[in-house]
User: Fold this.
Amino acid sequence: MSNRTPSATIVVPAYNVAETIGETLQSLLAQTFTDFEIVVVDDGSHDRTLAVVRAMGDPRIRVIQQPNRGLAGARNTGINAARGAYIGFCDSDDLWRSTKLAAHVAHLEANPQVGLSYSGSELIDAASRPMGLAQRPRLRGVTAAHVFQRNPVGNGSAAVLRRAALNAIAFRPAYEESRDWWFDERFRQSEDIECWMRLMLTTDWEVEGVPGLLTRYRVVPGGLSAGIARQYQTWEAVVAKLSRLAPGFVAAHAPAARAFQHRYLARRAISSGDGAEALRRTRAAWAASPRALLREPVKTATTTLAAGVLAALGPNAIARLARVAGRRAT
Assistant:
């Protein structure tokens, strides 16, 4: 490892990901912007994760081992160790396009008011095959309300931030003797949206996106997002924390945010074939804010229809509808 300070650091949290982390790191090492380091935080793995990382033998990779603290805790350790002025995050089963880091560094250097830069994402399956789906978020004019309601950043592997912006939101809980937190380690889910919201509500840093599907976001059945009830409970805990921070803001925007969160979870339930849960979440979304849902009538209508069909007729009916829709689209 060179003693020269790199311009950028990519933080990779890793917990029992021996099957995917090699491909993740290869995608990061292939970046066209080359002045970077990778900090892999082994969060208490008990498989071959560490052996896979060390076998790569690339001097740009540093490894830090720690007892399991969860995704937020691993990211915090990586931020603390990072030497770059720009810090990106890539989860250990996701991939970056080779031009991603270059695009974000150029964006941040050209826009000194932007603290968080992000991109759209292509969804891939367990075998890294494109699923034909993408997150194409709003890129400009992003407000705290946009982040709260629709989270244009999209996922934890899309963001690259200035170190200065992260430092502006660092905090240390009373029971922590020596460790700063940037992500709140009390949340095992929704920790990213809580962090982005704190950045927008407590600082003047702006959030903007760059064009392109530069992140390849893996969707795997049974992953962290599969526990729908637990995910919603954690999201509500984040809302409660934000209510203490900015009560007027949350009161004004929580109904719409809650509607979109329920709709998102309904779509997760549809993907996993759980018709009863999909229907419950769809009904909760309509109860929270019909007005918000009608801003996106096509997505809301397709979610509502799919949830109803799945609950009434089962997964095979959804598959038949998808095939019909596909034939009509070609």
Q: What stands out?
A: The first strand starts at residue 8 and ends at 14. Residues 325-330 have pLDDT under 50 and may be disordered. Residues 88 and 211 are 17 Å apart (CA to CA).
